[in-house]
Amino acid sequence: MTEALSVGVVAPQRACFDEPLPLKGGGQLERYELVYETYGELNAARTNAVLVCHALSGSHHVAGRYADEAYTSGWWDNLVGPGKPLDTNKFFVIGVNNLGGCHGSTGPRSMNPFSGKPWGAEFPFVTVEDWVAAQARLADQLGIERFAAVIGGSLGGMQALSWTLQYPERVRHAAVIASAPKLSAQNIAFNEVARQAILTDPDFHRGHFYAHGVVPVRGLRLARMVGHITYLSDDAMGEKFGRSLRHGKTLYSYDVEFEIESYLRHQGDKFARQFDANTYLLATKALDYYDPAFAHDGDLRAALAAARADFLVVSFTTDWRFAPLRSREIVRALVANQRNVSYAEIDCAAGHDSFLLADPVYHAVLTAWFDRIEV
Amino acid sequence: MAVFRYDYEVIAQWIEAGERVLDLGCGDGDLLSHLIEVRQVRGYGVENDPEKILRCVKNGINVIQADMNGGLPDFEDGFFDHVIMSLSLQAMQNTQRILSEMLRVGNEAVVSFPNFVYWRHRQAILNGRMPVSESLPYQWFDTPNVRFFTMTDFEDLCAASGIAIRQRLAFDEGKVIIEEPNFLASVAVYRLGRD
Q1: What is the pLDDT of residues A314-367, one digit of tens each?
Q2: H or E stretch including A191?
Q3: Per-residue confidence at A3, pLDDT binned at 50, 70, 90?
Q4: Which residue range(s) make up the domain with B93?
Q5: Chain A: residue nearest B61 by CA?
Q6: Would you call A173 helix, strand, or coil by DSSP?
Q7: CB contact under 8 A, B62 and A312
Q8: A253 is known as an active-site residue
Q9: CA-CA-CA-CA dihedral for A126, A130, A134, A135, to nearest 10
C-alpha cells in the first residue's frame, strides 16, 4: 500500500471563456473566468479525470497547500492525494471555483463590463445547472471528453447528480454524498434566515458595499452561525461543547459564556473576514432552486432517466440538514431506472460535516469505489 | 472466495436470464455475483453490515444499505422479477411484513431458511442442548436468529397470508430430501408468489 501523502504545494490556474454562457435564470454571461486546480497527471488517453465539485463555502482549493500558507490545506485534503481514497497516482483531479464565487472565478466582486464597476448584487443568478455547464466548458478546454468520475458533497453532490443528467455521456461514475434531490422547506427556511441576516445588514448597501468600503460583517457572521448549527448534530454539539462555561460560572452577561457561543462567534467572524456576502446569497439561492424533478411534475424517477453513470450515494446517520432519507430518494429513483448504484449510510456522529471528515468506514467505501474505476 | 452454498444452485435454476433480482441480506454479494455470471441478471443487494457493504463495493456489486425490519421503501412496486432472501428469514423480526414486502416489490420471492426441527436439531434438544449445526452454526447466546420455525410452520403462515408456494426443495447436506422433509431436511428453499 502506498503511504498516504499530500499532493504538496499547489497553485491555482485560470481559464478564460469568451463564448457567452446562457443562464437558466435568463440572460447570459458574455465572458467569464474560472479558477481551478489540478492534482495528478492526465493520462495519454484522457480517461482518468475526476471532477470535485465544491459546496456552499468551498473553492477550487481541494487539496495540497499554497507556498505562502504552510498550515492550511485544501478543504478535501484528506480525500485527495497520493495513496488517499481519490488517489492522485491514478487519477487526474480537478477542483474548480464555481461561477459567482469569491475565490477568483467571475463573481460579484468582478468588474461588470457594462458599468465598469463590480457586479455586486447585479451579478446574475446562477444555478447548479449553470455551474455544471461552465465546468463542462472547462473540461472542453482541458481536453477532457469524459470524466472517470464526478464527486461532490452537499451542494457539490447536487452538481455531481446534475452532471449525470446534463451530460450523461460525459460522466462514467458519480459520487453523490450527504446530498439531496432538492431542498426541503426547512432547508430553505434556514437559507432564508441566513440571507435576511445579510440583506438587512446596513453595511450591505443592496449588494454594493464594495463602493462604500465596508463589508456586511454582522450579516455574514449571523448567516454562518445559523449554517454551523445545521452542519453539526445535536449529539456532536453536546459532546464537543455541552453546557461548558468559559468562566466556570454564569455571569449573567451577553458576552461569551457558554463555549458553544464562543465557537459560533469564532466561526462567524472567521467566515465574515474571508467570504463575499453576494456569493453567499447566490449560492444559497442555487441550493434553493435545485430541483431536477420540477420539470417532470415532481417525478424524480423520470428526472433521473437521462443518467448513464454508475453511482455511489453516501449519507450520514446524524446529518439532519440532508438526512439519509433524502439520499434514499435519489437511490430509489436510480434503482427504478436500473442504474448501477450502491448506497452506504455511514454511522458518524458529526452531522452534515461528516462528509468532510476521514471516518474510516466512509473512506474505506470511497477507496473501494474509486479502486474499481478503470482508467 | 465464497463458500459454495447449494441453495445458490437451486435459486439460479429458478431465475431466468436477464431478470431483475433483489437479494436481501446479500452479504459479500456472492450470490448476486453467481447470478450475474450464470444468468446475466441486473442485481441489487440489501445489507446493513458496514463490513459486508464494503466487500460488495469491492466486488462491484450494487448494494443498498438498509435495515430490512423497516420494510423495503427504497424499491417500487413490482420492479423485480425475483426477490431473494437466502438463509436470513429467521433473523428478521417481522416475518409477515418482510414476506409481504418481498412480494410487493417482486413478482416472485425465493426464500431459504434452516429447518429448526431437522432430526439432528431434535436430537440435540432431546439431549438438553440448543442445536448447533451447519445450518444453525451459532451458539444460543450469539445467534443473529430471532425466529425459530419449521417447514410446516412456514407453510401454514404462507397459507394464512395468501402466499402461494410455487415450488419447494428441501436438503440435507446438499442432497435433496423427498420423504418427510420436515424431519430429514436441514434447509428448505421455497419459490413464492401471489395467486
Answers
A1: 999 999 999 999 999 999 999 999 999 999 999 999 999 999 999 999 999 999
A2: helix A185-199
A3: low
A4: 6-115+148-194
A5: A342
A6: strand
A7: no
A8: no
A9: 110
Rounded to whole angstroms, the Cα distance separating A105 from A83 reads 30
From the candidates A57, A110, A154, A179, which is the catalytic residue? A154
**B106-114 vs B187-194, strand pairing mode:** antiparallel
Provide the domain count of chain B: 1
ipTM: 0.93
Percent of chain A surpassing pLDDT 70: 99
* 3-state class (DSSP) for residue A65: strand
Stretches in chain B below the pLDDT threshold 50: 1-4
Q: Which residues on B lie below 8 Å from A341 (Cβ)?
A: 44, 62, 64
**Touching check for A368 and chain B: CB below 8 Å?**
yes
Is B133 a domain residue? no
Known catalytic residue at A352:
yes
Handedness of CA B94, B96, B97, B101 (dihedral sign): positive
Question: pLDDT tens digit string along A4-53?
Answer: 689 999 999 999 999 999 999 999 999 999 999 999 999 999 999 999 99
Catalytic residue among A87, A130, A319, A353: A319
Buried b (16+ CB within 10 A) or exposed e, B171-185: bbeeeebeeebbebb
Residue B122, in any domain of the structure: no
Whether the CB of B15 is below 8 Å from some CB of chain A: the reply is no
Which helix (H) or strand (E) segment holds residue A15: the answer is strand A13-17
- Say if B125 falls within a structural domain: no
User: Which residues are paired to B63 by β-bridges?
Assistant: B45
| The three cell numbers locating residue B195 | 395467486
pTM over 0.80: yes
Taking Cα atoms as reference points, which of A33, A44, A46, A86 lies closest to residue A64? A86
What CATH number is attached to the domain comprising B161? 3.40.50.150
Interface of A with B in 189-228 (CB under 8 A): none
In a domain, B155, yes or no: yes
The widest CA-to-CA distance across chain A, in whole angstroms, is 67
